[in-house]
Design goal:
By secondary structure, the chain is an alpha+beta fold. Helices cover 50% and strands 18% of the residues.
């Protein structure tokens, strides 16, 4: 086969063989950009879904930590009134503090345990299940969140 040199500077000086060769090369590349744009769009959608799913999990963890903090604060409000009236000392009533914290968690739709109660503070671990709508299609409709928080008695001035 005879090699054709196509080095013309414009289409008006191109020979018929050069035009046919360029036409064949252009036909072979047709539709290539559409496939690349499709791949980029799919990757972009997957990336967006991953970001949204991760954000949902972080929000669920934040909500779980908020539950633990609130339950601990509910427990820390239960002072031993008899001791306070007799001595002026602020102390937690361990039974009432534990009951208040567990009751708060139950009303919020969570469960939990009291890790520690001292005269001045209570530590609560809250366990809750939070919905994850973004991850439902991947088989994870909820995420279990475990968070621990401590609240202490602080006297008001």
């Amino acid at each position: 086969m005879k090699a054709v040199l196509c080095s013309a500077s414009g289409p008006w000086t191109m020979t018929g063989a050069c035009r046919r060769r360029r036409s064949r090369l252009a036909d072979a590349d047709r539709g290539g950009a559409s496939i690349q744009i499709l791949y980029i769009a799919i990757i972009g959608l997957l990336f967006t879904a991953a970001l949204h799913g991760g954000g949902t999990v972080l929000a669920a963890r934040s909500h779980g930590y908020g539950l633990a903090q609130s339950a601990a604060r509910a427990g820390a409000q239960q002072i031993d009134v008899a001791t306070y009236r007799a001595t002026g000392e602020l102390r937690l009533d361990p039974t009432l503090a534990a009951q208040a914290a567990i009751r708060f968690l139950a009303e919020a739709g969570a469960t939990g345990v009291i890790n520690r109660i001292t005269a001045a503070e209570i530590t609560v671990t809250a366990i809750s299940r939070q919905p994850t709508p973004a991850l439902r299609t991947l088989g994870h409709p909820t995420v279990t969140v475990t968070a621990t928080a401590t609240a202490a008695i602080t006297p008001q001035p």
